[in-house]
Amino acid sequence: MRNVVLAHEVDFEGWRTAARRLALDGIPPEDALFSVGAPADLFAAAGSDEAAPSPAASSSAATAAAPFTVPRPLVELAQTVIQAREPERFSLLYGLVWRTVRGEKRLVEDVADPAVHRAIRLAQSVRRDTHKMRAFVRFREVTEPDANGDPVSRYVSWFEPEHFIVEANAAFFVRRFATMVFSILTPYRSVHWTGEEVRFAPGADPSEVPDDDALERYWRAYYGAIFNPARLKVSAMMSEMPRKYWRNLPEAAAIPELIRGAARRTDAMLEAPAMPPRNARLPTPPADDGPDLLGAAAGSAGVPAPRQADPPVAVVEEEQGAPMLAALARAAADCRRCPLWEPATQTVFGEGPETARMMMVGEQPGDQEDLVGRPFVGPAGQLLDRAIKEAGIDRATVYVTNAVKHFKFEPRGKRRIHAKPDTTEIVACSGWLAEERKAVRPALVVMLGATAARAVLGRPVTIGRERSRPIALDGNTQGLVTVHPSFLLRLPDEDAKKREYAAFVADLKQARALLDG
Amino acid sequence: MALDLLGKLEILADAAKYDASCASSGTDKRDSLGKKNGVGSTEGMGICHAYAPDGRCISLLKILLTNYCLFDCAYCINRASSSVRRARFTVDEVVKLTLGFYRRNCIEGLFLSSGIIRSPDYTMEQVTAVARTLRVEHGFRGYIHLKTIPDADPALLEEAGRWADRLSINVELPTEQALRAYAPEKDLGGIRRSMGRMRLGIDAAREKVAPGRTPPPRFAPAGQSTQVIVGADPSTDRSILKMSSTLYGAYGLRRVYYSAFSPIPDASSALPLQPAPLLREHRLYQADWMLRFYGFSVDELATEEDGNLALRHDPKLAWALANPAFFPLDINRADREALLRVPGLGVKTVDRVLQARRHRRLRMDDLARLRVSLHKVSPFLVAPDHRPRDGQAADLLSRQAAARIQPRATQLSLL
């Protein structure tokens, strides 16, 4: 039998040195006896969180220095478990070390092994206690004169941890309250932060903590007011804040009365006569309170409105003096012609000068456009900008818009996946595009992709067959079909990307030539 | 009679308690080591400093700056037409309470909201001023959650994001019709646009920049969240969950909070007479979790004919009972996605099972040691020492319905 006497309850270095020596000497766990023989004043002398050299360490320094490794996760587990208020923990941990160095190298990963499981359970209990200490320590403020006789604040707390967690947990409080002077007193150990260093001292007595604090009254009032008596759920409170913590929590004094009064307060609320709402519109939903723009209200039940024969000329004429496009954009903001408005953030209307000679039509706003509220600002928009520039066109002179003005998508976790608009949605939105064309009267409409071409030409279009050649539109307008920039972004191979990008720029150059010529 | 600080605190905490969020987690790490002044730290994990008898965590000082409000939202205790007592904190009073409670280790920080006074911009400016004063003048490094006001000036939102860890804006009701009926001054479009702006700010702040480049401005590192009230209007669970999955996808929300409509003093006659069952709220949280971490879709969960979640069973058990062909699964062979669908196996347990499986063939007693409730999982799993009896799942169904679940459908009265 080998006796190991550790310096104190959380003497990890002492335990580690001893375990190392025992394993090297071939002492099986059942022949090792661990105990703690802490002189009461050990910590008072220590002056910092470093333990004094333990008796176990000094005896056979030579063997202790020999190469000896156990997996990092086992060391971390041991550092936590050693804080458990469980006399068997030292030998339990030595047992894990013994088996690990005797061939079960990955023992610590076998969470279903009874000994590993026991250690994990202890570690969980320590972690929970550590967390509860961070939560339930309550400081009281004491004002004391400093060396010069000036009043300074010191914060003092009394706490009763379940495990030996004060030493390891002190650093948390120091990180948080580094600029304060504080003491946390517990039955087995005290910690003092002077503002510059940590001092550990023996356990203390609750009477060393001042009685009351001016702010506790406020905290109790807050605790009572934030409680909702209509949702009384005492068991949920008890499982997270067991009664053993109550005596050191100033707010806990209010609990019995809050519970007793809850039913009465709830009944009073339910029995009180209801107040009529201020607003006459309640509770029936309003029929509609705006002009019916492009069938805006008709679509609000989720059913697409039938295509309206008359575009909203009347609305636009009301806005005398205001630019026609701005009025259109305002009207489109409330569009309900198809159900796409509902999950979307906002209508993304076209953008550019009313005098633009070139209009570019895309498919629909994407994720970024939907958030920002402007067309072509996302990745496809950036690619378009680059290509436009390369083709010698100034984007500021182009009116840029989309065939469909709301983002159509499928939610996928934390993202939205683009969904192609169908014909109903393209048709529902085509009135707005027609109005934009009427307002801008461009000489050339560049259609980016099949959806845009479908919307402008009013028929299904195969890009490959119709791109890169001028198409006569009504009036004096010409049309030109090319790909959508997002098509270029989706191409997987670099060569194809380069080739298609060049073709896209060539189309845009052709567009410029059509205007110049 | 003028209210003293204690009176104001009572009124303005009471006014804030219908907001369920109290999270203080997930922000950047900071502490006060080596600092000359200021106080506080955040280390990723949130801390609940107390629990109220309603079982809710108290992590933050959750108050309104004022409960005066121009709006008249039917479900809200602070609506303009309510006869509730009104109060208003000064900026310095909120700062004093926050620092005082924080130094006593009562809270992780502040969750500040406000009734709309004068104008959205004015209100937002007041709320932001509290956060600015805490951060700049007092070096406060604790957690700050600010409620933002829909359609407030983007510049104010930008400043709020600089001081706050989390920003939030409540959608309150799941559809536009409901919002128009119950909160006539609120505008769904304005709420969505603000959420969109917040996501852009949050994303921009997370962008990695090359060394030497100016980093983007700090913006709400703990993200944004929202809350929806359940049971004040006739919306179904299905429409609520559809809304949630849209919001998670569109704005990258950290959380959607569900708050069962509960009676308020001086209630509006536009509201239902009875409170919504807390169990419905609980089921929505479970379903929300299933959507985000367990790979379920809304259509797999809200399967009741009326468009709601089953109250009798939790959503996962309801799905398992409706899909018997999927089970039993072999605990030693099934992949992660499949195991996540076993009632009684949570994300952590599944990961522990996968880890332990590399070392041994798992038997039922191994599962017990992994803290798995054998009673719950046994109808759905095969192990070397276990095969479920035919109809074991159906037995579970009837036993649970009879014994445990049914009485909890209504709120228990303890006294």
Question: Mind explaining what this structure looks like?
Answer:
The complex is a heterodimer of chains A (517) and B (415). Chain A has 517 residues and is α/β, with parallel strands linked by helices. Chain A has three domains: 1-212, no CATH class; 216-271, no CATH class; 310-516, Uracil-DNA Glycosylase, subunit E, CATH 3.40.470. Helices cover 41% and strands 13% of the residues of chain A. Chain A has helices spanning 12-24, 42-46, 55-59, 61-64, 72-81, 89-101, 114-136, 166-176, 216-226, 234-240, 255-271, 313-318, 324-332, 367-372, 379-390, 423-440, 450-457, 463-466, 485-490, 494-516; strands spanning 2-6, 32-36, 140-145, 151-158, 182-185, 189-193, 198-202, 358-362, 398-402, 409-412, 415-418, 444-448, 471-472, 478-482. A five-stranded mixed β-sheet of chain A has the order 3-4-5-6-7. In chain A, strands 9-8-12-14-13 form a five-stranded mixed β-sheet, with helices on both faces. In chain A, strand 13 and strand 14 (478-482) form a beta hairpin. In chain A, helix 1 (12-24) crosses helix 6 (89-101), helix 6 packs across helix 7 and helix 16 crosses helix 17. The longest helix of chain A has 23 residues, at 114-136. Chain A is elongated, with a radius of gyration of 38 Å. Chain B is 38% helix and 9% strand. Chain B is built from 15 helices and ten strands. Chain B has helices spanning 5-14, 91-103, 120-137, 154-163, 176-182, 188-206, 237-251, 278-293, 298-301, 315-322, 336-339, 347-357, 364-369, 374-377, 392-405, and strands at residues 50-51, 57-58, 60-64, 109-113, 143-147, 166-168, 224-230, 255-260, 329-330, 381-382. In chain B, a hairpin with a 5-residue loop joins strand 1 (50-51) and strand 2. In chain B, 53% of the residues are buried. At the A-B interface, helix 7, helix 8, helix 9, helix 10 and helix 11 of A face helix 1, strand 1, strand 2, helix 2 and helix 5 of B.
